[in-house]
Amino acid sequence: MATIQEAMSDTPTRDDDQLLPEGDSIDQPSADTPARGYTDEQKYRIFNKEFMPHIDSMYNFAFRLTTDEDDANDLVQDTYLKAFRFISSFEQGTNAKAWLFRILKNSFINDYRKKSKEPAKVDYQDVETTYNSEDAEAEHTVDLRAESVSDLIGDEVATALNSLPVDFRTVIILCDIEGFTYEEMAKILDIPIGTVRSRLHRARNLLKEKLRDYASSMGYNEENEE
Amino acid sequence: MKEHCGHSTDCLKMIQLILDGEATEQQLARLKVNLESCKPCIEMYHLEKEVKELLTKRMEKRCCPEQLVATIKSKILTFS
């Protein structure tokens, strides 16, 4: 049987090191818990019983991040192969879904975001700065009524969501579509809970602006029609 | 009924915590009061709830292609 080091040798170790520093698996009670020595049989059992049931959610997450079927396929495959490789840092019975989502999110940032058309980080920083300014605090409610969005269909919501910078899109996917708690999101994204809360708040304001534009262009809101 | 809310930003943040199931008992109690007395808060609550439901219920859920599941399963068999 190959050791962990040998198994890792065919992967870009920089990414893997960032991904799962030893003993830093999600929900692990203590950072110095030694890696678990699962037998091959146990590894396959964990993989099939705890990892595979989340594959549809993982595929949806990958597709919403990459907005491309081929990239989503590759990303999900990379993530599951990494998960198997690092299975010894997963503790049985802990939150497998959050653990897998974290690996997928890191793989996306390290391997996919840079080759996608999206200007990495730049637009996010801009938006973050804008929304931190005092002006933003003053006009924090978006002028939009529940009735104007109630007729929107999934495709229209998806288009609005896809137009958000990826970091904002991600928190909305994790919270509203996948139903993770703030605490789980903090672990998946490696950010403090306070940041989860504020990023989610800003993401939703942006999404509502997009929905408002969409609704008014569709004539749902006559007053705002241009 | 209040027609204008003087702290709508804070109220909005609180409403989101409540809809996300992350609010404290105290915040829940405060929202209850606001939903009986503050018109802008009622409207914000309905909008936030509607947007969250759009995301939760109306977005297309895709299934992972079976071919990909098969590929992953066969690849991990060659690992150890």
Name a few traits of the molecule.
heterodimer; A: mainly alpha; elongated; disordered N terminus; B: 80 residues; mainly alpha; Anti-sigma factor (chain B)
Strand element count of chain B: 0
CA radius of gyration of chain B: 22 Å
Shape of chain A: elongated
The gyration radius over C-alpha positions of chain A equals 20 Å
> Mean pLDDT of chain B, rounded to whole units?
91
Weakly predicted, low-confidence segments of chain B:
none
Shape of chain B: elongated
Structural classification of chain B: mainly alpha
Class by alpha and beta content of chain A = mainly alpha
Multimerization state: heterodimer
Please give the count of helices of chain B: 4
- C-alpha end-to-end distance of chain A: 67 Å
In terms of DSSP E residues, the strand content of chain A is under 5%
Our estimate of the beta-strand percent of chain B is: under 5%
- Helix fraction of chain B, binned, reads over 70%
Number of helices of chain A: 13
Number of domains of chain B: 1
Query: Could you describe the largest sheet of chain B, including whether it forms a barrel?
Result: none
Along the chain, the helix and strand elements of chain A come as: HHHHHHHHHHHHH
Describe it for me?
The complex is a heterodimer of chains A (226) and B (80). Chain A is mainly alpha-helical and 226 residues long. Helix content of chain A is 64%, strand content 0%. Chain A is built from 13 helices and no strands. Chain A has helices at residues 4-8, 13-19, 40-51, 55-66, 69-85, 96-112, 122-132, 134-138, 146-149, 154-162, 166-177, 182-189, 193-217. The N and C termini of chain A lie far apart (67 Å). Chain B is an all-alpha fold and 80 residues long. Chain B has one domain. Chain B has helices spanning 8-19, 25-37, 39-57, 66-77. The longest helix of chain B is centred in the middle third of the chain and has 19 residues, at 39-57. Chain B starts with 7 loop residues before the first helix and ends with a helix. Chains A and B meet through helix 3, helix 4, helix 5, helix 10 and helix 11 of A and helix 1, helix 3 and helix 4 of B. Chain B: This is Anti-sigma factor. Chain B: It comes from Spirosoma agri.
